[in-house]
């Protein structure tokens, strides 16, 4: 809460600096001044801060998606693989007893993979939508930031004070809009991260249920293999 409050205060400070620039330029034009002393506004810093914040949240969102993927796909798959390995370990004791059950094991495993694909299809589509939203928001911050800095360099290169002041007036308006739009984009990226758990909740239940059923079937197969081995010893 304290950090978000600081960020809001920084945003208001940046906007006030920009508005001060506009006010001073307008005042200078009214009194007929040929030159105005502009307050120092760190345009590069404003753009850089937004880009860094966007990058940080985007990385966290991608990591959250990766973590959810591991939970809904990797974990149940590993659980089933462990039971399959238990059956495979019996092959040394009796290749024939295991071999006769190989088709059944394959059917169970294939069925699980089909279930996981169905369970994860909607989650994958939605997660792709989340990353598209993040990408669009990030592009706004980066590309619009580039436009701000390009105009800033143009303003600095003007030698004529009238042209310079006019350019800085345009820059001030552009930066104000950039701050507003970038803050909205940051909120979009933050919101995308919060959407991740809900997206995968249903898929998580689905894949783990499918894995539990597969484990029950595989344990039954393993029991049959053990019985076969005992009968042949």
What's a concise summary of this model?
The protein has 233 residues and is mainly alpha-helical. The chain has helices at residues 2-30, 43-89, 95-99, 102-157, 161-231.
Q: Can you describe this structure?
A:
Helix 2 runs antiparallel to helix 4 (102-157) and helix 4 runs antiparallel to helix 5. The chain folds into two domains: 1-30; 43-232. By secondary structure, it is an all-alpha fold. It is rod-shaped and about 100 Å long. The protein has helices spanning 2-30, 43-89, 95-99, 102-157, 161-231. It starts with a helix and ends with a helix. Residues 1-39 have low confidence and may be disordered. It has five helices and no strands. Residues 94-210 form the Protein TsetseEP domain. InterPro entries: TsetseEP.
Our count of helices gives 5
Computed over alpha carbons, the radius of gyration is 31 Å
How much strand?
under 5%
Number of strands: 0
Integer average pLDDT: 77
Binned, the helix content reads: over 70%
Low-confidence stretches: 1-39
Morphology: rod-shaped
* Terminal CA distance: 69 Å
Largest sheet: none
Give the domain tally.
2
Query: What is the element string, with H for helices and E for strands?
Result: HHHHH
Class of secondary structure makeup: mainly alpha
């Amino acid at each position: 809460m304290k950090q978000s409050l600081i960020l809001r205060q920084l945003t208001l400070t940046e906007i006030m600096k920009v508005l001060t620039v506009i006010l001073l330029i307008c005042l200078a034009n009214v009194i007929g001044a040929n030159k105005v002393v502009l307050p120092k506004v760190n345009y590069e810093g404003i753009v850089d801060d937004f880009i860094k914040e966007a990058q940080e949240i985007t990385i966290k969102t991608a990591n959250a998606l990766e973590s959810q993927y591991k939970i809904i796909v990797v974990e149940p798959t590993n659980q089933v693989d462990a039971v399959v390995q238990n059956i495979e370990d019996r092959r040394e004791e009796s290749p024939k007893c295991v071999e006769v059950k190989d088709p059944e094991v394959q059917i169970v495993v294939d069925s699980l993979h089909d279930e996981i694909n169905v369970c994860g299809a909607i989650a994958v589509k939605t997660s792709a939508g989340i990353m598209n939203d993040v990408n669009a928001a990030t592009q706004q911050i980066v590309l619009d930031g580039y436009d701000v800095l390009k105009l800033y360099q143009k303003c600095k290169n003007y030698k004529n004070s009238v042209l310079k002041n006019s350019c800085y007036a345009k820059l001030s308006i552009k930066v104000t809009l950039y701050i507003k739009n970038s803050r909205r984009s940051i909120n979009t990226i933050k919101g995308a991260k919060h959407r991740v758990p809900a997206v995968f909740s249903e898929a998580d239940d689905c894949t783990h249920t499918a894995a539990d059923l597969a484990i029950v079937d595989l344990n039954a197969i393993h029991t049959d293999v053990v019985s076969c081995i005992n009968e042949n010893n």
